[in-house]
Amino acid sequence: MVVILKRNAEHEKVNALMRQFEDLGLKTNLVEGTETNIIGLIGDTSKVDEQMVLANSVVESVRRVSEPYKAANRKFHADDTVVDIHGAKIGGGNFGVMSGPCSVESEEQIIEVAQRVKAAGANFLRGGAFKPRTSPYSFQGLKAEGIELLLAAKKATGLPIVTEIMDIRHLDLFSDVDVIQVGARNMQNFEMLKQLGHCNKPILLKRGLANTIEEFLMSAEYIMAGGNTNIILCERGIRTFETYTRNTLDISAVPVIKHLSHLPIIIDPSHAAGIPWLVEPLAKAAVAVGADGLMIEVHNCPAKALSDGAQSLTPDQFDGVMQSVKHLLDVEGKKILPANC
Amino acid sequence: MVVILKRNAEHEKVNALMRQFEDLGLKTNLVEGTETNIIGLIGDTSKVDEQMVLANSVVESVRRVSEPYKAANRKFHADDTVVDIHGAKIGGGNFGVMSGPCSVESEEQIIEVAQRVKAAGANFLRGGAFKPRTSPYSFQGLKAEGIELLLAAKKATGLPIVTEIMDIRHLDLFSDVDVIQVGARNMQNFEMLKQLGHCNKPILLKRGLANTIEEFLMSAEYIMAGGNTNIILCERGIRTFETYTRNTLDISAVPVIKHLSHLPIIIDPSHAAGIPWLVEPLAKAAVAVGADGLMIEVHNCPAKALSDGAQSLTPDQFDGVMQSVKHLLDVEGKKILPANC
Amino acid sequence: MVVILKRNAEHEKVNALMRQFEDLGLKTNLVEGTETNIIGLIGDTSKVDEQMVLANSVVESVRRVSEPYKAANRKFHADDTVVDIHGAKIGGGNFGVMSGPCSVESEEQIIEVAQRVKAAGANFLRGGAFKPRTSPYSFQGLKAEGIELLLAAKKATGLPIVTEIMDIRHLDLFSDVDVIQVGARNMQNFEMLKQLGHCNKPILLKRGLANTIEEFLMSAEYIMAGGNTNIILCERGIRTFETYTRNTLDISAVPVIKHLSHLPIIIDPSHAAGIPWLVEPLAKAAVAVGADGLMIEVHNCPAKALSDGAQSLTPDQFDGVMQSVKHLLDVEGKKILPANC
Amino acid sequence: MVVILKRNAEHEKVNALMRQFEDLGLKTNLVEGTETNIIGLIGDTSKVDEQMVLANSVVESVRRVSEPYKAANRKFHADDTVVDIHGAKIGGGNFGVMSGPCSVESEEQIIEVAQRVKAAGANFLRGGAFKPRTSPYSFQGLKAEGIELLLAAKKATGLPIVTEIMDIRHLDLFSDVDVIQVGARNMQNFEMLKQLGHCNKPILLKRGLANTIEEFLMSAEYIMAGGNTNIILCERGIRTFETYTRNTLDISAVPVIKHLSHLPIIIDPSHAAGIPWLVEPLAKAAVAVGADGLMIEVHNCPAKALSDGAQSLTPDQFDGVMQSVKHLLDVEGKKILPANC
User: Fold this and answer.
1) Among A120, A199, A277, D310, whose CB has the most other CB atoms within 10 angstroms?
2) Residue of D nearest to A2 (CA)
3) Digit-coded pLDDT (tens) for C246-261
4) How many other CB atoms are found less than 10 A from the CB of residue D202?
5) Are D277 and B259 inside 8 Å of each other by CB?
6) B62 vs A207, B8, B41, D243, CA distance in Å?
7) How confident is the model at residue D228 (pLDDT cuts 50, 70, 90)?
8) Dihedral class, residue A294 (left if φ above 0, else alpha if ψ from -120 to 50, else beta)
9) What is the ipTM of this complex?
10) How many angstroms away from the CA of A321 is the closest CA of chain C?
11) What gap in Å lies between CA B121 and CA B287, rounded to an integer?
């Protein structure tokens, strides 16, 4: 950490600040420039509160030079984390494909979709039981019943299931769920993250619409700090000024996160774009850029979907996308492993 | 709602879509253009799911022409909502000033700050008991004990208290709190919003960092749909590419929200800017632009604050800010009413 | 175009407005709703000034339903435009690779780089003679001499050259340049665009950092309106809140633009990311998403580059990137055609 | 400047880099940490090219600790710059109000508007002769004739005139113009800025839609580096995800720029908001936040304006705004000085 001092900062106060850092077990190094003096801090600065330093009257600004996350940091964990769910793996050369409808609507619907996505090559079934909707007047999901229906589809197809938690009070309902999803809007719901750190299920953590890559990794760190290291990250678009697409897919986030962290990262082109004909090119780009998987919305009848129909593929369209994806995976030497649930 | 049809959309399918709308009790009106045909929908379209319409194969795009919120909409509630907490009012010409430390740290601290901000003219005490922090290694607040200390400060000064809820499971701890704050990161924690709709306490709802004004009002609508109409909105900066300030204060949001909604809206210049010397000019701008109040961080010793010290004012600095603010409030004919707790 | 009227708009004024539209040769269609009335306009609305309509006292808002661009619109020109420079083609299945240093620095440097990028498979040489720099104290390019050196490299290698114009007064200097680049900062330098519409050289138009896809196509339309239809578009990252990468590559812009327009579009991963190790994954993603080409910075000695060294590849690194790119191009059935200058 | 080194950077290469800095006349200071080593650079680093440093194989990242602008920096020029145009002053407690139509349309129109805005208290007449329009099919301004009409209005009213230059080849036409405006889209048209640095007219420099405050000041620095120090900055809204307003007024930029620079800064609420009823609250906020002036669009008949009618005020509306503004200026102790042209 580098502390930039104000011009004409009083010597005495600077010395007091340096002693304060030394009391925290850090070594300090004062560099006196022509215009600006700085203090270099040596040691574990992850617990130094930037805000407190900034509030000191002699401080102009503060720059971190090392990452504030440890457990999620590749520097301290060089090998790729591989999340393994009954044999379906994500990370380390294994590609995961999570597909299914935005909302679970009926047993018939979810089983039909599950069979179709499995046949096309997906190795996970996703479906919403609890649905975050901008409007209180929109369909809010089948809730507990939705989870029952997902479990029925799992039984019918053997696909592990992924579904979103919206309230930590519902955690008990997720005991047979294979992967618990934390949605973009809850990426910084810190109390939920802490609690999930103490459960022993894989977590699919989606990036918030306005969150930096560093904040994204800090949210993973929240879960990991509790002991749960089975985390799959998911880039699903960020909010920008562009309005043609629903969000802007930050595809660079994939290689950046693979550089900074050992955690697997997948892409959700359905939410990123919000347009079904963009799913195929973006899914192909996801493979090419090095993502560890995809999450794609598929609905048996998008025009009658109770939510997000606009961005869902039909099973036939999904077949086409998966052919392209599998073709590219061969080129990249990656494979999709099916689970044996 | 206006539905723009694809070029060469088949007549039959367009008719089927129109019948679908008519089945929802809407009147339809087909306008045939030279390049594009559109369907105008007449009636209450707030329950029409845009996504479902977009998923129809003949639809190019959909444009809403009326707002999706009803309870929060000024069109259906012309008069300003005035939130009244033991006589301290916000809205309708009454200005509220909520001040205090980011985190409650000790009884001595919170009472000292409460006395100072009251003396300076604030009519609410704010303080964090549960703290949302980006890092799991940062101080997370005194929690239940923090609320006890706020209540002690309320007893000592008569100031109503405002504090943030981070987990709806904690709601019981808030039974003596006067205003429950929903933080920016929870603005779309819909399960929390629904629950707060059923409690009978005023809610201070902060705008999310990446949320539009319409989404902000939809989150208020979530609470109001449950029956709780005592809502104070708070603009606290949005995320943009500018990095000099912590966030970018969207000051235009104040007159826009006053135009669209009857709910009171205040400004938090401390979080918007993240820099103490920006609080005074932004607080003055808040009064001038027509805000109904301010939330300002004040700490007895910012350089020792356990969180957000960098943006806190000292009590002496706050005295200066309040003099400027009160001067401008006189010009605008607004007043700060003290509570009689 | 759909004009949404204010509630309680006076009948007379609405009629006057409708007559105004009819005077412009448009047909009008009044749709009376329960809450809102709208006017649908039929005919060529591309010349209707939205601002003027919005200024009418009965108008609440205006929504375009057809694109404001014509010449660049795929609706009126279904086939891909192929830009052909002495046999090196871009568009319609032909992939263009433009490589070279940010700044031309010396004859030796530019010829060495040209030979290396040609050997690696690039079919264009790019290099900056006039350099847009944020600081007036930074190196501003070799200017006219830089163009001379590029021409020398063209002579030595047969690669057509691409270089940026920063001031339309310099146009004469570009008479032997093969492709004139308009930089991101000049995307809405409308006087320059108009002038380039009257020259007969291919134009490489880069997207502005804060410009929407629609504005990007409108800038192409400016050039095309003058008669010059040889335009290559280039996505090079937009500005967002994320700071890890220099900009955020908007990869979705490629399939969106290919849907909306017939013009070829390439990707510049060097400027989008600003980090050399991101060039390879982003270049691969560019091929997979369907881009028509790449622009990549290559410098013989990045650490001594007079500008943008940080994001440049060495020739050896570029060899590696091109191997991956060519491998994927084979999969996609696209080819790089060399010029015969 | 602080250079953060990669972990395990080879000693020899680090030494070579340090010698490289020393050759530029800088002192270096190596700080060896537990995780990271850094080099602190002492001396005038404004000419060090960050990109070139970043390209060195031992460098992880670079952080500037002093501002890259000198002439525009308040650290080297403590007193407010006051721009004086025939007695109408901007800066140092003097408030400037620039009003008039987006486009000059006719002699009658511009003289009528000039008389009305002068009567209301404006001390500058603004009007567009050359108009930057997103569409090539929109009205592009009266050009040279527009400047003639502005001069006629100046003669009739004594108001100094402000008008935008879009092409540096037109500079001769501006010989009798009092203030030359550089529009947002040309903020980084560096060749234009350099040229304007050599002319002896005050420049009104508007902030680009996606430009940081630092880049804004660097563009002022470009002009100042040429010798022209008469610069008025103008904040006119930046581009964000919010779509209700045309842009997002970054009101914090005013006190930030007054902190960093001695140059005067005004606000343009018309372009920032794009909605006439937002002009008054934003103009009041501009005064309260400490701006040195306002630029406001006024048109005799907005609904017939050839450009930007939607955001223009009528002269009667402008009278009302100016009453509020003058009232607040009294409170702030600032004055509007009329020119004696």
Assistant:
1) D310
2) D2
3) 999 999 999 999 999 9
4) 21
5) yes
6) 27, 17, 11, 16
7) very high
8) beta
9) 0.93
10) 12
11) 15
Average per-residue pLDDT for chain D: 93
Specify the residue for token string 């080593």.
D37
Radius of gyration of chain B (CA): 23
Token pair 């007219």: residue:
D201
Q: What is the mean pLDDT of residues D124-149?
A: 92
Contacts 24+ apart (CB under 8 A), D65-68: D65/A2, D65/A4, D65/A33, D65/A36, D65/A38, D65/A60, D65/A61, D65/A63, D65/D1, D65/D2, D66/A33, D66/A35, D66/A36, D66/D1, D67/D214, D67/D217, D67/D260, D68/C134, D68/C135, D68/C137, D68/D214, D68/D218, D68/D221
Contacts of B244 in chain D (CB under 8 A): 212-214, 256
Q: Which of A239, A232, A270, A238 is nearest to A128 (CA)?
A: A270
| Interface probe, candidates B60, B74, B241, B242, chain C, greatest C C-beta count within 10 A | B241
Query: Around Cβ A171, how many Cβ atoms within 10 Å?
Result: 17
What are the CA-CA distances from residue C220 to residues C48, C194, C205, D35, D135 (Å)? 20, 10, 7, 50, 10
Integer Cα distance of B27 and B30 in angstroms: 10
Q: Given a cut of 90, is residue C172 above it in pLDDT?
A: yes
pLDDT band at B307, cuts 50/70/90? low
Give the CA radius of gyration of chain D: 23
Q: Do C7 and B36 touch (CB under 8 A)?
A: no
Q: Which of A63, A252, A265, A311 to mutate to test the interface with C (most CBs of C within 10 A)?
A: A252
HEC readout, chain D: CEEEECCCCCHHHHHHHHHHHHHCCCEEEEEECCCCEEEEEECCHHHCCHHHHHCCCCEEEEECCCCCCCCCEHHHCCCCCCEEECCEEEECCECEEEEECCECCCHHHHHHHHHHHHHHCCCEEECECCCCCCCCCCCCCCCHHHHHHHHHHHHHHCCCEEEEECCHHHHHHHCCCCEEEECHHHCCCHHHHHHHCCCCCCEEEECCCCCCHHHHHHHHHHHHHCCCCCEEEEECCECCCCCCCCCECECCHHHHHHHHECCCEEECHHHHHCCHHHHHHHHHHHHHHCCCEEEEEECCCHHHCCCCHHHCECHHHHHHHHHHHHHHHHHHCCECCCCCC
Cβ atoms of residues D195 and D168 within 8 Å? yes
Mean pLDDT of A177-200: 96
- pLDDT tens digits along D229-265: 999 999 999 999 999 999 999 999 999 999 999 999 9
Q: Which helix (H) or strand (E) holds A113?
A: helix A107-120
User: Which residue does chain C place closest to D20, by CA atoms?
Assistant: C304
Contact of D292 with D266, CB cutoff 8 Å: yes
H helical segments located in chain B: 11-23, 50-54, 107-120, 144-157, 190-196, 213-225, 253-260, 269-273, 279-289, 315-332
Question: Cβ distance D159 to D153 under 8 Å?
Answer: yes
Instruction: Check if the beta carbon of residue D228 is closer than 8 Å to that of residue D197.
Output: yes
Residue type at B35 in one-letter notation: E
Helical axes C253-260 vs C213-225, angle rounded to 10°:
40
CA–chain centroid gap for D212, Å, is: 11
pLDDT value of residue C304: 75
Strand (E) or helix (H) holding C219:
helix C213-225
Instruction: Please name every residue paired with A164 in a beta bridge, in sequence order, or none if there are none.
Output: A181
Residue whose structure tokens are 């937002």: D278
Instruction: Give the chain B residue whose CA is nearest to the CA of D242.
Output: B212
